Amino acid sequence: MIFSHDTELTLRAACVLVNSDRVDGEHLGDLPALDVYLDGFGWTGRRDRDTAEIESVHRLRTRLGKIWASADDEERVVGQVNALLSDTRAAPWLTRHPEMPEWHLHLASIHDPLWQRMGAEMAMSLADLIRAGELRRLKTCAAPDCDAVLVDLSRNRSRMFCDTGNCGNRQHVAAYRQRQARDGD
């Protein structure tokens, strides 16, 4: 583990959120899909379960996508992360839950709107990347036909392909076939 458990989990949640409309259409278009996403990453607290909540999560997704797109410009990302921390009124406090007994940070009240809680925690996880000098771990899939993002948590920062469309395998098969065709001539 490179970062704390909650930082890595939240970075993965942010990545999945950004990708939720980049591969094969919209995956968070209704309340049941949003619930599956939230439950899969253990989001707790208030859920309004209405259209406004889904729309606010979609706006957060757009903001996070812009952060990934700017990952090669540290000053710009710092500005975006600081704006997100400010907009969410992040206020850190330590907590733990029976299902997650390690101490971890929450950055918003359980009574705050969902997008605000998600945005605060995702912004803080991004801040952890920046403080560690690891912003280059935010990447876009290297497959030429894929717009998905990834967070490279590998030890040597060598990950190139996303998890959404089997991109790595497709690229490796294409390279193998190209080598076979070249060697067969």
From TrEMBL:
Organism field: Mycolicibacterium madagascariense
Domain of life, per lineage: Bacteria
Matching Pfam families:
ABATE, zf-CGNR
- PANTHER family registered for this protein in UniProt: BLL6575 PROTEIN (PTHR35525)
Q: What is this protein called?
A: Zinc finger CGNR domain-containing protein
| Residue ranges constituting the Zinc finger CGNR domain according to the UniProt record | 137-180
